[in-house]
Design the sequence.
């Protein structure tokens, strides 16, 4: 990520100085969306623009020559949190988890994305991936073969492979859903004019 252009600290207006003071005083109460001044449903490209906007204004390099330690500390604290916000919100999985957390009953405890949040996000992503294709090698193998069968219109083969996949992962909801889909396809394909077709 390219560093934003550095401007002298004197470029801060009185309003910006007040804003800096206000935001750093409320830092522990602001969520990442509030820090970047964006709505929660903003697309990643707009989040990036918001980060650059805030970063240009509060980048610590702009305040290198400033002798006021309080001002420097405020800038450092705000910039650090703005960078943290961008790190979380630019990642789809982290943003989804973070948004759910701050809209939940424990908002105050979830304003900062922690290592625990990172572990929870990875676990949720892994679980979601496993639900899509399975947790066992054999289950995944039969499931993927069944998906190819379904796509090719081979409903009987898809049904057999999904039943095999379910022997390895009997509680897998995705496998069950696709088995029902294959069985529905078998019923649709079966015609009363052909008594030899599977019903």
Sequence:
């Amino acid at each position: 990520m390219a560093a934003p252009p550095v401007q002298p600290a004197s470029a801060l207006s009185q309003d910006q100085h007040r804003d800096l003071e206000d935001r750093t005083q409320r830092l522990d109460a602001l969520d990442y969306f509030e820090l970047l001044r964006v709505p929660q449903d903003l697309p990643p490209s707009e989040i990036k623009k918001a980060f650059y906007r805030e970063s240009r204004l509060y980048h610590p390099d702009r305040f290198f020559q400033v002798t006021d330690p309080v001002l420097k500390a405020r800038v450092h604290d705000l910039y650090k949190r703005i960078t943290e916000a961008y790190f979380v919100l630019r990642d789809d999985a982290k943003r989804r988890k973070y948004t759910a957390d701050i809209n939940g009953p424990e908002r105050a405890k979830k304003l900062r994305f922690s290592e625990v949040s990172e572990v929870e996000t990875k676990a949720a992503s892994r679980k979601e991936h496993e639900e899509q294709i399975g947790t066992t090698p054999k289950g995944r193998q039969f499931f993927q073969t069944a998906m190819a069968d379904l796509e090719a219109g081979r409903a009987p083969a898809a049904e057999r492979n999904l039943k095999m996949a379910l022997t390895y992962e009997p509680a897998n909801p995705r496998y069950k859903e696709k088995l029902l889909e294959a069985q529905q396809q078998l019923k649709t394909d079966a015609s009363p004019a052909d008594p030899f077709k599977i019903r």
User: Anything to note?
Assistant: The chain has nine helices and no strands. Residues 69-89 form the longest helix (21 residues).
